[in-house]
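Anyone? Bumping this.
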Amino acid sequence: MAYRTVAGSQTYAFADLKDLMAKATPPRSGDMLAGIAAATAEENVAARMCLADVPLSAFLNEALVPYEDDEVTRLIIDSHDAAAFRTISHMTVGDFRDFLLSGVATSEVLAAIAPGVTPEMAAAVSKLMRNQDLIAVAKKCRVVTKFRNTIGLPGTMAVRLQPNHPTDDPAGVTASILDGLLYGCGDAVIGINPASDSVPVLSELLKLIDGIIQRFEIPTQACVLTHVTTSTEVINRGVPVDLVFQSVAGTQKANASFGIDLATLKEGREAALSLNRGTLGDNVMYFETGQGSALSANAHHGVDQQTLEARAYAVCRPFKPLLVNTVVGFIGPEYLYDGKQIIRAGLEDHFCGKLMGVPLGCDVCYTNHAEADQDDMDTLMTLLGAAGVTYIMGIPGSDDVMLNYQSTSFHDQLYLRQVLGLKRAPEFEAWLQRMGITEPNGSLRRQHGIHPLLAAAPELAA
Amino acid sequence: MSEAAKGEHPADYGIEEAVIEDSWRRLAGVTPARIALGRAGTGLPTREVLRFALAHAQARDAVHLPFDSARVAADIAALSFETLELASAAPARDAYLRRPDLGRRLSDESRARLSARAAAPVDLAIVVADGLSSTAIHAQAVPFLTAFKARIAEAGWSVGPVCVASQARVALGDEVGELLNASACVVLIGERPGLSSPDSLGLYLTFAPRAGRSDAERNCISNVRGEGLSHDHAAFKLAWLLKEALARRITGVTLKDESDLLLVGGLVPPARIG
């Protein structure tokens, strides 16, 4: 169905809901690359004005990616919770924004409507929201998950300790893990991106992290971020796996380019559940996403990249993940050109995920060919901290020496905790205090001599 | 110190105490990761902020430093290669970064010039492309080609003119190789600079190059630079892959690099010429 609006002295027409969404989305190099962005600033606002009057129910009747061609659309439509949707079913997209910002939309109300919010509805309303709106509403959303600790409680922010090494060297990985723990990081997960995809190497890394967690009784979980089918194979060989990882995207075709479909994810989750390794809960999945992945796989169906990103959260949702994060600046300037676009995208992704009931964290990051620097990352992480982000990355000195990009550091999370008063997952916070790593107020304790954790690296400590 | 002098020295205000060093500093020796940096409050000490800023500046410069294609072409010509300077369809760096598709095809002028050459078939087309690091090409292209020239002579391959291409991505070599009537094409390209590796060269080999080839149809040799893979070793690997590619008429995921089996005690055997 076509949409039409008058803005200024001109009438603007949009071919269909997909076209309207793409024209209404904030400026983004990826949508320009795809040739679907608004041609002028006025057309961009005209599209938003038009979108504001679209009923939310339109998204249940007009699929942006055809139902027949795409299992992600089928998942979204077939699993839509009509009862949860009832509260907002009469609203337009514009009404929905006002409602979300109002005092009526409490944390409890937002949690109750989450199963009725489709990714297209979340994306649509986000396109009408300023950055402060994205922060204010996300802050009210509560998504709590558990494996060996409790992630997502109000006033907390977790950190993934990311101890990557260019050749997966065990001593090098261990050194980064110890550094991170001594800086109070690792409650989200100790999760490594391996350089290798060989099963023996991955198994050794899993045993290494598990060994440290067991030895020091750390209330956290391990993950080696490899393909879901590889994790399943590793599990079948009897190797300890806490969380099963997979990159996911918002269309069936893009997921196929990752070598997965919904059935593969289900198998991976069942394999992880069969080990029964969680002590507090059974959220066993870890997903990563990022705007632009569908376009780069030539699988975008003419839909804007932010809407497709929200659809990726719909892929995550039924698998009850412990953690989901958007790797927001990794993809490069042809999708997110500069610091401004990366910041906006990070806030949109976090908002959409939380509104849909997904535990969203963010890899606040950039590559060296993007127009961005540490100051932009400081801005985004501070805004996300204010928005109640579930977790961020912790990488030694912000410099990932394996993946060649810059993310947030062990120091950065200390800064956020100090200026925003954010606590860690309570079980992990208590462990850090027991180990003499932190003070009761959560700040780092000054270390003298050899800390007992360093015994994990005897060849280093000698 | 006298009472009167107290308060005049920075140490009196505890400035030497402001930076808390990490007692596990020796762990830093086993990883290139930036661990045990110490802290000033919750922040990085000044020395680490500046060390990081310098590394980022070098990586940024590697992306944006204008490509001196004339100098690179002249230096390559001095190795007795015929050279040609070409440009992609991306008019400038900004467009190059936003529009990867433009960097993958020739400008109309370059295409016309290349098409006008009478192209007798050759075994190999060589493209030297700035990619995302002109710094890498300025530093690595000539020493690499010096090493690879000996391998060309050893195998007796026929080689087209070395095409020095500005604002270019890997797939530009497909069009160039096709126009030069080459059995295979190698693209030497500046890789996306990392914080600790702004000058890394990548080599991409494609059998039967023509527009539309996918990345799965290429073989890649990465991280060619002083602290990574040496020029000699990279030239040896590329020669091995090219020999296999020409014999088996493929490149890509089905051609696995097994050149390391030919190393002698971990060392690259010298080229035998004559």
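Late reply, but here is one note on the structure posted above: The longest strand of chain B covers residues 182-190.
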